[in-house]
Design brief:
This protein is of the alpha/beta class and 250 residues long. The protein has a single domain, classed as TIM Barrel (Alpha-Beta Barrel), CATH 3.20.20.190. The chain has helices at 29-37, 78-81, 102-112, 127-141, 156-165, 182-188, 203-211, 224-233, and strands at residues 14-16, 42-49, 55-57, 115-120, 150-153, 171-175, 193-197, 215-219, 237-240. A nine-stranded mixed sheet has the order 1-9-8-7-6-5-4-2-3. Helix 7 links the parallel strand 7 (193-197) and strand 8 (215-219). The two termini are 32 Å apart. The structure holds SN-glycerol-3-phosphate and magnesium ion. The site of SN-glycerol-3-phosphate has 10 residues, from strand 2.
Length: 250
Amino acid sequence: MSERALPPWPYPRLMAHRGAGKLAPENTLAAFRLGASFGYSVFECDVKLSGDGKSFLLHDATLERTTSGAGRADALTLGELAMLDAGSWHGPAFAGEPPATLAAIFRYLRANGFSCNVEIKPSPGNEWRTGAAVALDVKAMAQGMAVVPLLSSFSETALEAARATVPELPRALLLDALPADWLERLERLDCAALDANHKALSAGIVARAHAAGRRVLCYTVNDPERVQTLFEWGVDSVITDAVNRLPPPA
Ligand code: G3P
Ligand code: MG
């Protein structure tokens, strides 16, 4: 195991998942505004490319669940995506909320002194191209932000592309379960953090990551007692849906 000092971690201990978890339509500007109303200042969101190569927010590979569209998300141009309703599925209060472009989200973050964890969520087959393009967009849009955005992905190819394109942006490797070589994977991608499913963590895993100079972030934790346990283990930040039930982040 290599010895390495812990990298900077300018993020609060709690981050809002997909903008504001489940209280507003995920990955829309409305969700970010709602998360901010509960005191959150750093927001996780899922970002992929439109058919014409523009960064926008959507979790799924297809449009059905969270928009009025259908089919693969990368089959539409950004102009076509802008015509969709990404709010009505959640409820009438959000009818007409558009899918969010990364540019719109960064305009909001910059105007309010906020930051984000951009989860690179490539459409299938677009891993390298998405990692490179999203990293370049984040670099350009984050100029002058006090808290540098954190990139993360389940796709090691996307993280490798982000590293090759914009090495200075911090990266986190998302892992749902921890393979035996999880630390070697982090080291190969020069990740600042492990970003794990909280169920895969233990006090020992957190200590091992820290000893190797890697921060620990985890998702998606909505039970206050579990959050407390994770902090006692030394977890650096927790991503939550429960922005209305967990105390304002510090
Ligand atoms: O980035 C953490 C978390 O969002 C990963 O899972 O499926 O909610 O994007 P998912
Ligand atoms: Mg996500």
